[in-house]
Specification:
The chain has 158 residues and is α+β, with helices and mostly antiparallel strands. It is built from three helices and three strands; from the N terminus they run H-H-H-E-E-E.
C-alpha cells in the first residue's frame, strides 16, 4: 500500500476558502464599527440633552432665588446679551434688576459654551396674582452630527 495517498487527502485550505473567510470577517468588522459609531453619536446627543436640562434647571433656580427681580429675567429669542458688570458697594447697593442681568448673561454664556449654535429665550406669563408668575425657559441648539434643531422647554413658577 502506498504511503503518499494519506497526504493527498489532507490538502489544507484553498485560496477561495481563505478569501470567503476574510470577506465574512471584514463584513462583521464593518458592522461592529458602524454600531460603535451610532452608539457614540447617540451618547453625544444624550449628553447635549442632559446639558440643556441641567442649564434650564440652573436658570429656574436663579429665578427662584431672586424673586424680587423675577421679571428682569425675561429674554427674547435670538437675543445675545453682553457681559454686564456690577459696580456695587456699601454706599451704592446693587438693585435686583442689575443682579438679574448679570445672572442672565452668565447663564446665556454657559449655554452657548455647552451647546452648538444655541439660542435661549425666557418668557414671563403673569397671572392675576404676582406670586403666580410662570416662566418658560427654552433652549434650542443644533444637534452635533445630525444638523437638526433640538429644543427643551421648562416651565417654572416663581
Amino acid at each position: 500500500m502506498p504511503r503518499h495517498r494519506g497526504r493527498l487527502a489532507n490538502g489544507g485550505f484553498t485560496l477561495i476558502e481563505a478569501l470567503v473567510a476574510a470577506t465574512v470577517l471584514a463584513v462583521g468588522m464593518l458592522g461592529s464599527a458602524a454600531m460603535l459609531l451610532r452608539s457614540l453619536q447617540a451618547n453625544r446627543l444624550a449628553l447635549q440633552r442632559t446639558q440643556a436640562v441641567v442649564l434650564a434647571a440652573d436658570m429656574a433656580d436663579r429665578i427662584r432665588a431672586d424673586r424680587n427681580a423675577a421679571a428682569s429675567f425675561a429674554l427674547a429669542a435670538g437675543t445675545t446679551l453682553g457681559a454686564p458688570t456690577l459696580s456695587c458697594d456699601a454706599a451704592n447697593p446693587c438693585i435686583p434688576a442689575d443682579v438679574a442681568a448679570v445672572e442672565l448673561s452668565d447663564w446665556q454664556q454657559s449655554v452657548i459654551r455647552a451647546l452648538p449654535y444655541a439660542e435661549t429665550s425666557i418668557t414671563v406669563a403673569s397671572a392675576a396674582a404676582p406670586a403666580a408668575n410662570l416662566f418658560t425657559i427654552t433652549i434650542a441648539w443644533v444637534q452635533t452630527g445630525d444638523d437638526t434643531m433640538a429644543s427643551i422647554s421648562l416651565i417654572v413658577q416663581a
